[in-house]
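Quick illustration, no need to memorize.
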Amino acid sequence: MTFQQLEESFESFERGTPRLNAIRDAIRQADEKQDLKWRFWFRYDHIEESIFCGDRLHALITFPEMLQLYDESPTLQEDGQIAHSLLICFRWIVEAVTEFPSISRAQIDDYFRLFRKRLLEQGHSLNIYHHKRALYYLNVDKGIAAREFARYLQTPFDSVSDGKAIGADFTAAYYLSIGEEEKALEAARPVFEGKLKASTLPMATYCDFLEYYLLEGLWEKARDIAERLEPRVKGDLYFLDSIGMLLSLWAHEDVPRGIALFNAHYDMYLASKNPWLRVRFATGMAHLFARIRDDALPLDDVRIPVNDPEPAALLASGDRAALSAWATAAAREQAAKFDDRNGSRYYMDLVDMLPT
């Protein structure tokens, strides 16, 4: 089998771990053959799969290998397609690093500085740099986010930019972060009407609005968004954050529906290596079990696997208060790591946001 055929075979593997393992084996084969271009391209495939299956830890491990390979290889640098693809990976990585609280703000800014330098070296617009930096700072430092958003609007899209559809989603998210719902709705309208499309849309945009409506206590609007969002994200690790937001809503509006959603995704939460996805799900889980505690609702339909012994034992005991305390502690522990890194209270406020 040629390396080209091997790459085509990746499509036959289940998304996530099976496909990542297959690509990692292809990397090993290309390394053994010292095939320079396929060493690059298989690493590109590995990073792309990691990014879009949701568990981005693999991408953070593979990207430095890819960068070193490129920097040490004039042949790769002279290939325009490879040089461009490196920047596409960098675009994904500067967002992924923000999802791991073990990576400090200083390190995140180092990634952004290097990304900016690489863009300029290849003659690209800084549109995507301002986009991704503003996105990170939306809930960290609104002053920095506002400056980066203004620069984003002033710089042209180019081939490394995320494109008009993701740009519309980002613009809506920015306006929601400063409480401008009408401007956000105007920015999102082409996405909601299907005029602008991307693989993560409209789901990501629905989630932006769902979070805003939850924070504002606008339950009817939140439920309308949730009805459109839930069928699109159920069972998808990439959208575990959206599922967490849905748990928060159903904790307020429809506890049985929340329990069913929790049962269907708790194994996914346990398996995830992405702290940002995990904290969002844990927050919704905390809200759900707090409502079960406060309303003394039955636990009969809740399912927690025995391979997570502490909450499984609490569930078996029927102690609603203890189960709620466990879920809230898990959410707070994870939220604190992000807030400590960011110097904010955003994630802890999410844990505290749902009125009983």
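The chain is about 75% helix and 0% strand.
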